[in-house]
TrEMBL record:
One example GO MF annotation: RNA methyltransferase activity
Protein's recorded name: RNA methyltransferase
Residue ranges occupied by any tRNA/rRNA methyltransferase SpoU type domain in the UniProt entry: 123-269
PANTHER family: RRNA METHYLASE (PTHR43191:SF12), RRNA METHYLTRANSFERASE 3 (PTHR43191)
Keywords assigned: Methyltransferase, Transferase
One of the GO biological process terms: RNA processing
Record has Transmembrane helix as a keyword: no
Length: 275
């Protein structure tokens, strides 16, 4: 039976992780062993459990306990389940819960680019992408369309923030990922050098009259290819483009100048996937 605890005090400290800690505080870089993430919806929570993440507590509407959340609760019989009516939870969290279920979990330990790229043939590299919705959508496309790993520049937003995890449907628990450095000086020169040392050709997605079309046969020749995508609005830095082996663009029609980075990523991942 689930360990159900009725919420009677909205200020209870055990609820802080859901209501009073910022994303920065949840990451807890000074004390990594205390870092937490918030995972939303039974399906995404199940994906996180499958990946080996450890739940610490649940927060959900009462009707979820014997309903859609029953499957994940059966896998975690000793984990506290804090519950109340939807209206109480909305007052507590400040928003209506998507599918009525949140789970606090320990943050997985970081991995290195060298570790996750050891057997990879296709990787996505994200430069300075700061919108969590775009990060989540890119991870979902990476999982669906054949990317073996995702690498992030130091200035990208946290893929494990609540919104990114939700938008991705938990795919960042399935696709290995790592940061290419911890400070902005680690990118692009040092980060791209690490990729080249790992045997990757690099393809910068950029609007440039000299760029190859994304379906150019030459882009299928590298055994290992890193697809590099830039920040919302400005795209890739000029230095990044100059240091990449190829510049690649998606041909546009009807006067459209570009696609949203998440949409462009999906097109590029499909076309440049390993055959």
């Amino acid at each position: 039976m689930p360990n159900v605890i009725e919420i009677t005090d909205l200020s209870a400290p055990e609820l802080d992780v859901y209501t009073r800690l910022t994303d920065h505080q949840l990451r807890s870089r000074l004390h990594p062993e205390q870092a937490r993430i918030i995972v939303e919806s039974p399906k995404v929570i199940a994906t996180a459990l499958d990946a080996g993440l450890m739940p610490e507590s649940f927060l959900m509407e009462r009707r979820q306990v014997d309903g859609p959340a029953a499957g994940v609760l059966a896998r975690c019989p000793d984990v506290p389940v804090y519950t109340a009516d939807r209206e109480v939870l909305a007052r507590l969290t400040g928003y209506t819960l998507t599918r009525g279920v949140l789970c606090a979990m320990g943050r997985p330990a970081p991995r290195t680019a060298e570790e996750i790229c050891q057997n990879a043939r296709r990787v996505a590299v994200l430069e300075n992408i700061v919108d969590s919705t775009n990060i989540g959508a890119i991870f979902r496309s990476a999982a669906a369309l054949g990317m073996d790993a995702v690498l992030l520049s130091p200035s990208c937003c946290d893929p494990l923030c609540r919104r990114a995890v939700r938008v991705s449907m938990g795919t960042m628990f399935q696709v290995p990922w790592a940061r290419l450095g911890t400070v902005k000086e680690d990118w692009p020169a040092a980060g791209l050098a690490r990729l080249h040392a790992l045997g990757f050709a690099t393809a910068a997605m950029a609007l440039d009259d000299r760029a190859k079309a994304v379906d150019d046969p030459a882009l299928q020749q590298p055994e290992k290819l890193a697809v590099v995508l830039g920040t919302e609005g400005d795209g890739l830095n000029a230095e990044t483009i100059a240091r990449c082996d190829h510049t690649v663009m998606i041909p546009m029609q009807h006067g459209v100048d570009s696609l949203n980075v998440a949409a462009a990523a999906a097109v590029a991942f499909w076309q440049l996937r390993a055959r």
